[in-house]
Amino acid sequence: MKSPSIPASPMHKAHKHESAFRHTSGDAQYVDDIRADLITHVVLSEVARATNLVIDTSRASSMVGVHAIITAADIPGDPLVGPIMHDEPILADGDILYHGQAIALVIAESYEEARLAASQLNIQYETHTAILSIQDAIDANSFHNRPHRIARGDLLSVEDQTCVEGICQTPAQDHFYLETQAAVARPVEGGCYEILSSTQHPTEVQKMVAHVLGISSNRVVCSVPRMGGGFGGKESQATQIGVFAALGVWFTGCSVKCWLDRDTDMKLTGKRHPFQSFYRAYFDSNHHLVGFDVEIFSNGGWTSDLSIPVMDRALFHLDNAYHIPNLNFVGRVCKTNLPSNTAFRGFGGPQGVVVVEEAINRYCERLSLDPLIVRKINYYRNENNRTPYGQEVPAPRLDRIHDMLATSSSYQQRREAIDAWNKTARHTKRGIGYQCVKFGISFTKALLNQAGALVQIYTDGSIQLNHSGTEMGQGLHTKMMAVCAHELGVSMDAVRVMNTATDKVPNTSPTAASSGSDLNGQAVRIACATLIDRLKPLARRILNVQPQEDIQFCGGFVFVSRSPEQRIPFSQLCTQAWVEQISLSATGYYRTPGIAYDEEKGRGTPFFYFAYGAAITEVELSTLTGEYRIMRTDILHDVGDSMSPDIDKGQVEGAYVQGVGWLSGEELLYNPQGRLLTYAPSTYKIPSSGDVPLDFRVQLLPKAEAKGVIHGSKAVGEPPFMLSISLVTALRHAISSIANKEVQLRLPATSEAVLRAVYSQRMVLEEEQDLIRF
Ligand code: MTE
Ligand code: LUZ
Ligand code: MOS
Q1: What is the pLDDT of residues 584-630, one digit of tens each?
Q2: Which of 473, 525, 493 shows the shortest CA–CA distance to 712?
Q3: Which one of 484, 641, 722, 763 has the fewest beta carbons within 10 angstroms of its own beta carbon?
Q4: In angstroms, rounded to a whole number, what is the distance separating the alpha carbons of residues 370 and 368?
């Protein structure tokens, strides 16, 4: 019962990103826009593995413009950092463990002076052979953990079924956030520190700065204006940059910036984990995937960082959307002389999903089946709804999404038309591929599933909103404004989201695992509910109604539900609250209920719920050059009842295209000594506008409200990344049309890789023709 003159809540409406105009006008402030007295040049190692490192700084430290040169020996507190294991020397101490490792910091007035000084460092060491690949690590028994395992059923019982076996390799990927890693540290009186950081995890920066300097956490405040992209690369690995800047302050007393140029960023920081998986998939005569035996290895790099939870998420997603009765999944993280690989959109999920999808594709190629049909046969359904780790998949939405998308995209007709085209076309082949996803939402490290908020109302009715999440372009702040505006019944304009800061909300989790809006949305709602509870009795008194009378807050007014014309402006209520000494500031705190996982047993409920989606991708490729184009992509994605549909569509599009980059064009190449060769945009190719599907149709699943989640919405940041795997299926469809044989396609599917796959089909064809001839 709302009066027509009262504007509706902004919840579930289209919003422009809260910083959209500032992004485009240049008004948006990033960390590098903040001035500092001095800059930091990070000196990187030029070898992948060495011992007896000795650095003579005497000549360099007396050079013009140089204020300090810092090496491991100078660190005042604990020299080790790391988000979980605490195994990462902040600067190389005696040993060098990867090419590009930070070995010294030059704090200077300008980059030119710093680089000149760095060239005058006398660096000595003894080099050793590096362990680089997963195979090197397996051979050398070099691992970060013991194997993690999830198993059920009995694989012996399916041994006589049709088996496809193989080795599936997925590549690394650089985050290539537009804004490289950056931090500014400033001295604050009393030996305190202020760190402005481009980080997804300000609490980790605060903690590790305190730790490395040997001071208490309350002497450090870390705040985040915004990031120009994070994608997981600033979840744990922005910490080091913040610590570098803070060390600069410790030794000089001046404000110090640490900003990495692109080359340094790409050499120093970790990437998406490359995986190598040995699999055997068993299918019965009805095309049911009845057994899956998989041993997966990831390349963790030199320290453990987040590699173990990434591996766990890969294991949790080896089933993707399919019920598999008999299985054995084992995962292990390799320790190598590479940068420490880290969180990247999907957090191991994509690496897990690719394996089961490759098995299905190969099975279908062998039997000339449409892989869409085999996928559908295997979905979780109400009668088969337990994941390998025992969590229930309640009322799966896979069939509904599948049927809607297959129909709306005319999959069947288009596949037939493509098959007809491929029969006659000589140099261009077409392919169509379907991919669904089921993605578990919650941090796999369960305790991280918590968030806080601090909401402050001023006497004019305007609001400052603080919450524990960070903004990296994903639109979290916009969604949080909508939650706050909805709860307090004001317009979005009345709410200002403040920089994320550890002095406003303490002990925060990283903004990651796609759960930023789920967790912080609840915390914001709870804080606002506390304020509303305080304001309602006052409103009833002012409106002169009984204590049991229902009061509503909407459109900037506070009114009696039964008679909306009886109302006062929200601002008037706030002024009166101050006069009557009612607090207008409240915190909110939320933790996800009911999450538990026993890693020993491989059983539990690691996820609060699952997000779903599906995509159909059509490609056209040249068999002469291996080049291809995505002609059309249709996506239907389940974001629950979206809090902000336009922002969510942007997330779906961005995740898909970023996934396309991972699977098609982005290639990190190292020389045999472990030196990264593709460390700049000249050689490392992220997708550009020309790689976006020519015809791109993204829909959000209608009538999809989720229970127990903020405003019925679902997490969106990572799940659609996996929809890009439809590209691989589409490419395989196109390539297999040459000889109707199993495709050997290496990932990333660069033009060269596609051409090689085309040649190997042709060879099969020629061999067969030979057989016929003789
Ligand atoms: N979108 C943009 N524009 N920039 C980013 O860095 N990171 C992704 C995703 N979408 C990212 C993004 C990743 S890895 C995650 S985990 C989520 O956003 C984090 O934000 P959320 O939890 O608020 O969705
Ligand atoms: N688990 C997860 C995690 O699923 N996503 C994450 O980003 C993460 N980060 C740290 C620890 N566990
Ligand atoms: Mo995202 S990889 O969880 O930061």
Answers
A1: 999 999 999 999 999 999 999 999 999 999 999 999 999 999 999 99
A2: 525
A3: 763
A4: 7
Among protein residues, the one whose CA lies closest to atom 4 of ligand 3: 232
What is the value of pTM for the model shown? 0.97
Structure token pair of residue 407: 């129909």
* Complete domains list, the chain, with CATH: 34-129+175-268 (3.30.365.10), 275-444+599-768 (3.30.365.10), 450-591 (3.30.365.10)
Give the closest residue (by CA) to ligand 1 atom 11. 231
Q: Is residue 718 flagged as an active site residue?
A: yes
The pLDDT tens digits for 490-523 are: 999 999 999 999 999 999 999 999 999 999 999 9
From CA 641, how far away is CA 714, in angstroms rounded?
7
Pocket of ligand 3 (CB under 6 A): 200, 232, 235, 343-345, 347, 512-513, 718
Beta-strand relationship, 80-81 and 551-554: unpaired
The token pair that represents 319 in the structure block: 């089933």
| 152 close to 327: Cβ distance less than 8 angstroms | yes
Return the ligand 2 atom nearest residue 347 CA: 5
Query: Comparing C-alpha atoms, which of 676, 713, 633, 509 is closest to residue 13?
Result: 713
For ligand 2, atom 11, which residue shows the shortest CA distance? 445
Ligand nearest to the CA of 271: 3
- How do strand 148-152 and strand 326-334 relate by DSSP bridges? antiparallel
Residues 270 and 236: their CA atoms lie apart, in Å, by: 10
Report the relative pairing of strands 628-637 and 122-127 from DSSP bridges: unpaired
